[in-house]
Amino acid sequence: MERNKPIGVFDSGIGGLTVVKRLASVLPNESIIYFGDTARVPYGSKSNATVVEYSIENTNFLLHKNVKAVVVACNTASSIAIPELRKRFDVPIIGMIEPGSQMAVNQTRNGKIGVIGTRATITNQAYSKSIKILNEKIRVYEKACPLFVPLAEEGWINHKATYEVAEEYLKELREEEIDTLVLGCTHYPILAAVIQEVIGCKVQLIDSGVASSEIVKKEISRIGLESDSNVQGNISYYVSDIPTKFKEVAGLFLGNPVEEVHKVEIEELVSLHSAK
Description:
Rossmann fold; about 15% strand; about 50% helix; six-stranded parallel β-sheet
């Protein structure tokens, strides 16, 4: 049945696991297929055209796995590729930007919101534009934090270097007295404890993956595609590079060992795109 097809999720690396973890919590009976494009991480330093191309390839791959919806669990891809994906594909495509922006607007008390993300997300002002549409009076302070992605990919969750990098990145936002900080990259919740300690306990962290998971739940229910299974869904993992590091960091973050990760060749992704 259509409703028992899996939900597809893709990201440039391990960051999208923060979304998978939340999806599995709010939709426990849904199966999930996750693709991490670990051979081409990070997306934040790539051109817009390249990010769109990779996103199309990733979506094609997931659709060949017979998914019923695609979650773009990458803020860079969400900020650049969503319009093209929605134009090309006839399944629900859910991104990170709008849900995260709405949650931030709902949570702020003093109207000062910080946003951290990759260079591409910040350069495109994706969150700033989205937040201003919701409430033009809110002041938005954005900061690119490109080193957070490789730190998360390495699993340096409580490493001294991570604290030092966070201190350097976040000092300007502290000075602006923000009360809400959007983690504008799905890798960043992996480093949430460090970010919270450095930015201060009074600042509320917004995880766009949490917000987007609620949107996924509403959307598949709205179109009648929620699973009617009464058993826990399965999660399958695919990556485009050697799975060893992914398994190690994924198990650490998810709290459970990830036993099986399938490697996908880049040539396969490209050929699926070319066949369209």
